[in-house]
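#random but structural
TW: two for the price of one
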Amino acid sequence: MGTEKCGFAVKALIVGGCIGALLIVILIPASFSTVEYHQFGFVRQKTTGAVDTSKVYSGGKHFVGPDYEFKVFKADTQFITLENVTVFTSDKLEVSITIFIQYNLRKDELPLLHKQFDLYYEDVVKNSAIDAVKGSIPIYSTRQLILNRVQVQETISKAIRDRLGGTCCRPGCPYNGSCDSGCVPYSSCADNQKGLYLDVKGTQLGKLVIPDDVENRFLRTLILQEESAREELYQEAQVVRKETEKIVAQIKNDAQEIKQNATVLSEYIGTVSKANYTATIENARAIGLKKLFNDLSITDQKYKSSFDYLRTLKDLSNIYLTVDFQQRIAGSFGSGSQ
C-alpha cells in the first residue's frame, strides 16, 4: 500500500513538472511584447485595460508579462497639411492660405499627452494649428502677405510653435544654446504652458489665394510700377546718352585743341629751326668768305662785292650763266638784259 502511494506521488510530481515546464514554454514568449522603432509605448494590462504611464518604452522587445501589451504612439515625424484655411487680413479681406507642418511627440511629456488626449490628439493638433494661423495673419494686409512671404512665414511658424509646443524652454537648452527667446525655464514651467506636448520641426507657407478683384488690382498695380520703372530707366538712359555725348564732344574738342597747339608748336619749331639754319649758314659763309679773301689777298671792297654778287647769282635757280669769247659774262636778267 505504501508503495502504491509513493508511485502515485512520483507520477503526480512528474505530471506537475511537465505542466509547469509547458506553462513556462508558453508563458515566457507570451510575456515579451514589441515596440516598433517608430513607436513609443506604455504598458497596458489586457484584462483590465489599465495603462501604466510611469515609463515610456522605445523600440525593441520588452519583457512585460503575459497579461500585458503596449499601447503605442507615433515616435517618427508626423505631417499636417492645412489646406485653404480662410483668414482675414488687416484690410478686412478674406484670403485662403495653405500651411505644411511637421512635428514630433515629446517622449518626456508623453504621459501628459496621454492623460489629456489619449490617442486622439491629431485632430486637436490640427485645429490648434488652424487657430494659431488665423490669429497670426490679421496683422498683415493682403499686399504684405504677397510681398513679405518670408516675414509672414516666420510669424506663422512662431505662432504654431507657441500654440503646439508651448512656451517652456526645453530641458538642457541653456547648455546647447537652443532655447527659444523668452521661453519659461522648464523647472518652473506649468503643464498648461507646455502646449500640446510636441515639438514643431518645420512650417512652410504654401499657396495663397486672394479674391479675383483684389488680385486684378494688385496685378494692375504691379504693371503700373513696372511701367513707371521702365520710364525711369528710359529717362536715365537719355540722361546718360546726353552726358556721353557731352563727354565725347569735350574729348573731341580737347583733341582738336591739342592738335592745333601741336601744329602751332610744330610751325614755331620749324620757323625757329629755319632761322637758326639760315643764321648758321650765313655765319659760316661770312667766315668762309673772310678766310677766302684773306687767302687770296683780296682787300679791295669792290672785288669782294663783285665776288659775293656772282656767288649769289650762281645760287639762284632761275639764272643761267655762260662765258664766250665776245662777252665775259652773259645771262638772262629779264627782258632788258644784254
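TW: number two ↓
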Amino acid sequence: MARATGNTVVDARQERDLKKALGSVWVRFSGSLEDQYIHHSIRRARKLIGRSLYVLIALFLVVTVPVLVLVDDPGLAGWRWFGFWPLVGALVLLFLAVKVDALTRWVSTLVGLALMVALAGTLLGAIRLADTFLGQVAAFETVYVLIIGFSILRLPPTRTLFWCLGSLVLALTLALVLGWSVQPASLLLFYGFPLVVCALNGYMLDASARHSYANNLLLAKESDRLRQWRDNADREARRQRLLNEFMAHIAGNPRVSVLLDQALAFMIEHTPAVAGAAWRLADDGLHQEASRGLDAVARGRRHLPREGLLAGALDSEGDVTVRHDVPAGYLDLETGHSRMRPGQVLFVTVRQGDDEPLGILELAALTPFDDDARALLESLAPSLAYALVAAMGREDYMRRHRQAG
C-alpha cells in the first residue's frame, strides 16, 4: 500500500495478525509494522500541525492580546513570563518543526519540546499567580494546551503523555526550588483531571487511527493481490494469443529449414532477441537450418559436433537455458559494418516429451531476457517440437520414396 501507508509491505503472517487485531479495541501491530505506524503517525502530526499552525497562532492571539491590553494588574509582568513567552516559544518550535525541511527527522522531538515548554510555563503561571485572575487565565491556558496536545498535534499518545508528565515534573521542581506554594487541590483541578480526560481522548483517537491504518494496509494488500491476478490473467491471455499466432505462423507443412526459419523469425520478433540460429540434431552432430542477424562467421557454421555451449543446453533438463557470460567471438551480431558481442544468449531446446532432443534454437540479445520472454519461449517449444517431428517425418518419407525409385 504505497500510496496510503508509505511503501509498507505486509506479508502473509502480518496480514493474519492484522485481521485478528481488527476485532480488538486496541490494535497492536506486530514486528516492524509498529515502527512503521509510529513513523506514519509522526508524518500525520507534521501534516496536521502544518495545516493548523496559523489557527493556533490566531487562537493564541485571541487569548493573550485581550489580557495584555485590557488587564491592569500588578502580576501582569509575571504572567508574561509564564503565560505569554513560553507559548511564543512553543509556537516557534512548532513553526520550525513543520516549515524547515532540514528538521524533518526531529519533528517528534520539536513538537514534544513545544508541548513541554508551553505546559511548564502555564503551570508555573497558575502556581505563581494562584488566587488571582491572571492565575485563572494561566490555568485555562494549561487546559487549552492539553486539548491541543492530544487532539490537534496528534503525536502518539504515549509520547504526548510523556512530555506532559515531564512538564509537570519540571514545573513542580522549579516551584519547590523557588519556594512557591503548591495547592494540590487546584493542581488536580486545572491539570490532573484535564490530563486524564485529554489522554483518554488521545488514546481513543489513536485507536481509531490504528484501525484505519490497519484497514488501509489490508485493503492495499487485497488491491495488490487483485492487481497481480489481473496482471497474471493479462499475461496468460497474451501468451495464449501469441501461441495461437505462432501456430498459424508455422502452419502449412513446411520443410524443416523453412519451419525453423519461421519459428526463429517469430521468436526474434516477440522477444528481446535481435539475432539467432536454428540447429537440427542428427547422428553426426548439429546442422544449422536457419539464421538471422548473425555475422558471416556465425552464419558459416553449417555443421558442428555435439559439444560446447549447444551440447550443454541440449543436455539440460529445462527447455530454456540462458548464458550470461557469452564467450568472445561466439554468435557475434552484424550491425551495419561492425560486429557486436551479444549481452546474453538464450537456448530453446526442441524435444518431444522426455525423448532425445530434436534440435535447438539459440537467440542472441543485447539486453537480458525477462521472465515473460522466457515463459513465452517455454510455451512455444512443445508446439514447435510437434511441428518439427511432422516435418522431419515428411522429409524422411520423401527421401525413402525417392530412393525406392
